[in-house]
Fold:
Amino acid sequence: MKEYFHSVILDEDKCIGCTNCIKRCPTEALRVKNGKARIINQRCIDCGECIRICPQHAKNSITDPINNINNFKYKIALPAPSLLGQFDDVNEPGKILSSLKLLGFDDVYEASRGADIVSHFTRETLKAPKKLPLISSSCPAIVRLIQIRFPSLIDHIVAIESPMEVSALLARQKAIEKTGLATEDIGVFFISPCPAKVTSVKMPLGNSHSNVDGVISIKAVYPCIKKNLKKNIECLEFYDSGKAIGWARSGGETYSLGLKNYLCVDGIENVITILDEIENGKIEGIEFIECLACINGCVGGSLNVENAFIARNRIRRLSEKYMRQKQILLRNKLNDFTLKEVIPPKNILKLDDDILIAMKKMEEIDKAYEMLPDLDCSACGSPSCRALAEDIVLGYSDFDDCMVIFRDKVKALLMKQEGKSQEEKDV
Structure:
C-alpha cells in the first residue's frame, strides 16, 4: 500500500507547544507532547487551519520548487483564479499571466477554463441526481473531511473532477496537439492557494492518478510575478469568463450554476456544522451545497499572500467586469471528467485488527473518559477530553497529563504530607 502523504509539515525548531493548533484542527490530527506539536498523518486533511493559526509560523506546506518545471521539455502553468486576486487593479489579468509565463513556462492555461466545464456538467448531473443535496467536490479538504468525519455523505459528493484536474487534462491534450511531444515530456504545474491541492495531486481520491505533475504555491511565485509586472511586457490572452473567475471566492461556483435552492458555506467549522445537519436529516429542499474549507473561499487559502477580504473584493470586481456568456466548445464527454473510483470511507480510529480487542479498548476509552473533567481545555496536549481518553488507552498519554487530575493529585499529596507533619508535632 502506498504510504499516506499529506502536505502540512511542522518545523519543530519554531514550535513552542502553545496548543493553538490543536484547538482548531477539524479532524483532531494534532497533539502537543513534550512541548512540541505532532501531526497524526492519517487524520490530516491539509485544510491549512494550523498554518493560518500558528503564531510562531511553525506549520508550513510541502510544495514543489519552481525549478522542478525543468524536468520537462514543455512546461505549462495552471494558475488558480485566486492568483488574480493577489495583485491590485492596475494589473490586467493578461499581464499577470504573462509575468507568470516569464518564470520559465512555455504556456499558461488557466484553471478557470475547467471551472466553466465543471459547472456545465454539474448542471447536467442535477437534472437526475442520485442523492440530494449534492455536495461540491471542488475543495479537496472538504472531500477528505467527509471521508473521515461524515462517511455516510460520500454518495452526496458530485462525482466530477475539480476544475484543476479538468484544466490539466485539457492543457495536456492541447500541448500534445501543438508540440507532438509524448505526454511524459509535458509538465503541468498548478499554482495553488492551498496545501490540500498538493495532497489531491500526490494522493488523489476518486482516480488512480492526477493530471497534474506538480504544485507550486502562490507564495512562491508571487515575488517573481511582482517583479516581472514592472517590465514592459505584452498581455497574454486570458480566459475572460466572469463566472469562472468568480470561483475563487465563496459563492462563485453556486452562482455559476444558476440555482435557487442552494447553500454556500465557507470556513471549516461552519462546514462541519452544515454537514452534521445534513447527516441528521435536518436540511431539506436544498439541491446543491458549495462547501469551502477556507473563509472567503480559495482566496482565503493559507498559501496566498494578500488579505483574503481584499482579494475577494478584487475577484468580485473582475468577475463582474467579465460577466458575459461564454461559449463552451466541448470535444469531451462527461465520462472524461467523472471520478473513476469510489471514494472509500476512512477509519482513523482503528483500535485493533482484532474486533474483540478493539471493542475492549473502546470500553476502556469510555471508562477513561468518565474519569476526566470534560472541560476540553487542551492543556493536556490533546484536543479534547475524549481524545485524551483515546490517547491514554492507546499508550500515547496518561492521566497525569490532565492538569485537573494532576492538580488534585498534588493537592492530595500536600494534604497527606501536612497530616503527617501534624501527627509528628502531636507526638
User: Anything to note?
Assistant: The chain has a mean pLDDT of 90.
